[in-house]
Fold:
Amino acid sequence: MKKILLTGALGQIGSELTAKLRSVYGSDNVIATDIRETDSHVVHNGPFEKLDVTDAEKMFDIAKKNNVDTIIHLAALLSATAEKKPLLAWNLNMGGLVNALETARELDCQFFTPSSIGAFGPTTPKDKTPQDTIMRPTTMYGVNKVSGELLSDYYFQKFGVDTRGLRFPGLISYETLPGGGTTDYAVEIYYEAIKNNAYTSYIGEGTYMDMMYMPDALQAIIDLMEADPSKLEHRNSFNVSAMSIAPEDVAAAIRVHQPDFKLDYDVDPVRQAIAESWPDAIDSSAAKAEWGFKADYDLAKMTADMLEKLKAK
Ligand code: AKB
Structure:
């Protein structure tokens, strides 16, 4: 990666990935784009352009003008929003992806886009979910993610585009809030712990999902993009996870620091149904074997860092 175009750069992953990539590859070499323009370091600390990813021509022009050799395509609607607005999700998630892949093909760029644990469905094995397994998701987001994985494989096999991807679990971070996801509770719970010492979870007790702390997710993107292609048996996309947790596990980790922290439940049937259709715990062994994936943060270490950073914020 030398000259990188990012879409969705003001989102939860994008805002932190832009800063990290600028520190590794140089500010001028990371062209951040987003449909919005806000008063953010992403806009002020390096090249930034407004871009609606459904505008194929503008995406191509920005990439060509800046001589980019890598595209990191993040702009997408997450699972809960996609379930409320399925047609919009199809148009944005698939339309944006095909525009980004076409730009990568025409300009001979390396390409990354995230998939998700949402690519799995209720007939997928729930525990130690293998890298290669049944994928019959029952959500629009899942349909988009499986289609995206297949499309990215197609661009590699048919056109030789160096496509790579990760099946991200819920990502936990303190800089930018996620929006419209099923796993968002695992971020909100920390904000509410600091503000009110209490949280009402829309995900039910005993509902396990995979999660990862943002620093591990950012490092995984860089490590995968820098990985020797001859070692990659898989490309789109690798299972990666750092922990499998339920709301009560996060509450117990918070109580180590705030013993009176209270958790109760007001379950949202839509997001609960999505969560129940996803695996409990995926197996990341292909990512470990093929390009050395590792996560530094477990629940206890992540919780200590989240609470410290949010208190300071
Ligand atoms: C969501 O909940 O939609 C995302 C995801 C797991 O892809 N965080």
Q: What stands out?
A: Residues 86-107 form the longest helix (22 residues).
